Amino acid sequence: MLVILLFGVCALLAARLERLGMVQLAGTAVVHDGDTVTLAGERIRLSGIDAFEKDQTCERGGQRYACGREAEAHLLRLAAGSDLVCEGTRRDRYGRLLAVCRAGGIDLNREMVAAGWAIAYGDYGAEELAAQLNHRGAWQGEFAKPQEWRATNGRPTENQHNLLGWLLEKVSGFLL
After folding, report:
1. Is the dihedral of CA 161, 79, 77, 65 positive or negative?
2. Is residue 16 part of a domain?
């Protein structure tokens, strides 16, 4: 019981401390792929999601198609004609800011998952389930999750983006 209480207190403290380092950027973004943009000279990785890799293909109706390019195109459409506002506190191993980005009040991270062009990666599980049940985006056919695709294609893997997922990953690695 004490371990659970300590874990809860640590998670709460980490969440509070995380807010102190909040970075907020706004302006016109350059879209690099389905989950990476540059804004105000800062490279940003949309947190809590994992979009299909730029050169990844998926299958729909027995045909291969460029789902990575479709993910990028969807993010381009979402970001078009509106300044982005991105907020984050942590960075990934490449130094990219892990952030939630909005355009015209729309949460782009959430929308990428809801449209089926990204997988929930620590956040947005309900949106992923809805996309799957409604056959949106890549859920219209078959695909390898981006994390699996990277592993089988010699690409570096990603770590969980949300604080709780990251904390659980670290604790389980320590305990095992």
Report:
1. negative
2. no
The string of pLDDT tens digits covering residues 106-136 is: 999 999 999 999 999 989 999 999 999 999 9
Q: For 27-76, what is each residue's pLDDT tens digit? A: 999 999 999 999 999 999 999 999 999 999 999 999 999 999 999 999 99
What's 110's domain CATH number? 2.40.50.90
> Would residue 173 count as lying in a domain?
no
Rounded to whole angstroms, what are the CA distances from 23 to 29, 59, 122? 16, 38, 20
Domain assignment present for residue 129? The answer is yes
Quote the pTM value. 0.79
Q: Can you give the residue range of the structural domain that contains 41?
A: 21-164
At position 60, the amino acid (one-letter code) is R
* Number of independent structural domains in the chain: 1
The whole-angstrom separation of Cα 107 and Cα 84 is 10
Asked if residues 48 and 124 have their Cβ atoms less than 8 Å apart, the reply is yes
CB 138 within 8 A of CB 145: no
Q: Is 165 exposed, middle or buried (0-12, 13-18, 19+ CB in 10 A)?
A: middle
At position 159, the amino acid (one-letter code) is N
- Let me know if residue 15 belongs to a domain: no
Helices (H) and strands (E) in the chain, counts: 6, 11
